[in-house]
C-alpha cells in the first residue's frame, strides 16, 4: 500500500512539469478551489459510515454499511446540486468564480464518485484486498494525469483538470468492482429503505461526531485556498496549490508512513505499562534531522527550482514555497507524533485542538488578507503554523509524560 501510494504520488509529480506548461496559474487556481471544496465536503458526503465497515463482524453488516455509504453519497450529491442552483449567484460573487462558474456543477458528481471510492476502499481493506487497492490507486493517478494532459490540448481549461479527476475515480471504482466481482453491491433491488435506515441509526455516532471533528481538521488545511480565492486572484491560488502539490504532499506521505510505525511501537509499550516518552523524543529528533535538507533547498533555491522545472511563469510559486517551508517543516516533524492522542485515548482533546486550529487559521488568514499583500499573508500563515505545531508538540509531550514515572 505504501509503495502504491508513493508510486501514485510520483506519477502526479512527474506529470506536473507538463501540466504547468499546458494550464495557466489561473486554471490551476480554479482547480485547487474545486479540490478544496471536495476535500471539505467529503466528510459529510458519506456520513463517515465507511469507518464502521471494518468494525462490524458479519459480511451482511459490511455490505449494508457500504450501501449506506452509497445512498448517503447519492443523496448528498443531489441535495448539494439543488443548493448550488438555489444560491448560485451569491456563491459565484463570494469566491469570484465568474471565470469558471461551471465548476460548481462538477462538485456534486465528484463527491459521488469519491464517496463510492471511500466505501470501496474500506470494504476491500476489511478483506485485505491490498493488491486490488494498490493497483486501483495507481490506476486512478495514471488516468487522472494522462487525461489531464490530453484534455489540456483540447482547450478545456480548468474543466479538463476537473473532468480528469472525476474520470480517475470512476475508472478506479469500476476496476476494483470488476476485479473483486462485487458488482452485486450496486444492485438497487437489494437496497431496502427500512433496513438501511436501521443500519444508519445503529452507527449514527459517525455522522454526528466523527464528521464534525474531520470537518474542522480539513477546514484548517483548506482554509488558505478559500481565503486566497476570496481576497486575491485565482492565479495566486494556483501558485499556492503548486507548492502543496510539490512540497506538502510528499511530506504528508512520509509523515503518514512514520506515524503508522510509531503508532505500533508506542501502543505496544503503553499496553505493557511502560513509558513511551523516550520513543517520542527519538522520533522527534529523527524527523527533525530528515526534514532539514528539503527546507534548506526550498529556502535557498525555491524560486529558481520552480522556474526551471515548471516554467518561468511559476517562479512566484517558488517564492511562496520559501516562506511556507518553515510551516511545512513543523508539520513534518510534529504530525506523526499526534497518534499519541489515540494511544492515550485523548480523542476529545484532539478534536478540541483541531477546532481551535480551524478557527485560528481562518481568523489569521482573513485578518492578514485585509491588510497585507500575498507574501505578507503567507508569512503570517507560516508563523501561525509554527506556533500551532509548537503548542501541539507541547500537548503531545504533556500527555506522554502521564506514565513517564513508570520505568521503561
Automatic annotation (TrEMBL):
Keyword Transcription regulation listed: no
Protein topology in the membrane: Multi-pass membrane protein
Keywords, in A-Z order: Cell membrane, Membrane, Transmembrane, Transmembrane helix
Organism of derivation: Bacillus badius
Main location: membrane
Pfam families attached to this UniProt entry: Polysacc_synt_3
Chain ranges passing through the membrane: 30-53, 65-83, 103-124, 145-171, 283-306, 326-343, 355-372, 378-399
Protein name: O-antigen flippase Wzx
InterPro entries: Poly_Biosynth_Transport
Compartment annotation: Cell membrane
Amino acid at each position: 500500500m505504501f509503495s502504491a501510494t508513493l508510486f501514485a504520488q510520483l506519477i502526479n509529480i512527474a506529470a506536473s512539469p507538463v501540466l504547468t506548461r499546458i494550464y495557466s496559474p489561473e486554471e490551476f487556481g480554479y482547480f485547487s478551489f474545486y479540490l478544496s471544496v471536495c476535500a471539505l465536503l467529503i466528510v459529510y458526503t458519506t456520513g463517515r459510515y465507511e469507518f464502521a465497515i471494518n468494525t462490524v463482524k458479519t459480511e451482511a453488516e459490511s455490505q449494508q454499511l457500504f450501501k449506506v455509504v452509497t445512498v448517503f453519497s447519492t443523496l448528498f450529491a443531489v441535495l448539494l446540486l439543488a443548493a448550488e442552483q438555489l444560491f448560485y449567484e451569491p456563491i459565484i460573487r463570494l469566491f469570484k468564480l465568474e471565470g469558471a462558474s461551471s465548476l460548481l456543477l462538477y462538485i456534486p458528481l465528484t463527491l459521488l464518485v469519491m464517496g463510492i471510492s471511500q466505501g470501496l476502499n474500506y470494504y476491500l481493506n476489511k478483506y485485505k484486498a491490498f493488491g486490488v487497492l494498490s493497483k486501483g490507486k495507481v490506476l486512478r493517478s495514471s488516468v487522472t494525469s494522462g487525461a489531464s494532459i490530453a484534455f489540456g490540448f483540447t482547450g478545456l481549461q480548468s474543466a479538463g483538470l476537473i473532468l480528469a479527476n472525476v474520470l480517475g475515480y470512476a475508472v478506479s471504482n469500476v476496476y476494483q468492482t470488476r476485479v473483486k466481482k462485487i458488482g452485486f453491491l450496486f444492485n438497487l433491488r437489494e437496497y431496502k429503505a427500512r433496513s438501511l435506515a436501521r443500519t444508519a441509526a445503529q452507527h449514527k455516532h459517525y455522522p454526528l461526531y466523527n464528521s464534525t471533528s474531520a470537518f474542522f481538521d480539513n477546514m484548517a488545511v483548506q482554509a488558505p485556498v478559500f481565503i486566497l480565492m476570496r481576497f486575491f486572484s485565482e492565479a495566486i491560488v494556483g501558485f499556492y496549490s503548486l507548492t502543496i502539490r510539490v512540497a506538502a504532499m510528499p511530506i504528508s506521505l512520509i509523515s503518514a508512513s512514520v506515524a503508522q510505525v510509531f503508532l505500533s511501537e508506542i501502543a505496544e509499550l503503553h499496553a505493557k505499562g511502560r513509558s513511551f516518552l523516550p520513543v517520542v523524543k527519538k522520533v522527534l529528533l529523527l524527523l527533525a534531522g530528515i526534514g532539514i535538507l528539503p527546507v534548506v533547498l526550498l529556502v535557498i533555491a525555491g524560486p529558481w527550482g520552480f522556474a526551471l522545472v515548471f516554467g518561468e511563469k511559476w517562479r512566484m510559486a517558488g517564492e511562496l514555497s520559501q516562506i511556507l517551508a518553515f510551516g511545512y517543516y513543523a508539520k513534518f516533524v510534529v504530525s506523526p507524533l499526534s497518534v499519541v492522542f489515540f494511544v492515550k485515548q485523548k480523542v476529545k482533546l484532539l478534536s478540541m485542538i483541531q477546532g481551535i486550529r480551524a478557527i485560528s487559521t481562518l481568523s489569521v488568514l482573513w485578518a492578514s488578507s485585509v491588510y497585507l499583500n500575498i507574501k505578507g499573508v503567507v508569512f503570517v500563515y507560516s508563523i501561525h503554523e509554527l506556533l500551532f505545531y509548537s503548542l501541539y508538540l507541547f500537548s503531545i509531550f504533556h500527555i506522554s509524560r502521564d506514565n513517564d514515572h513508570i520505568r521503561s
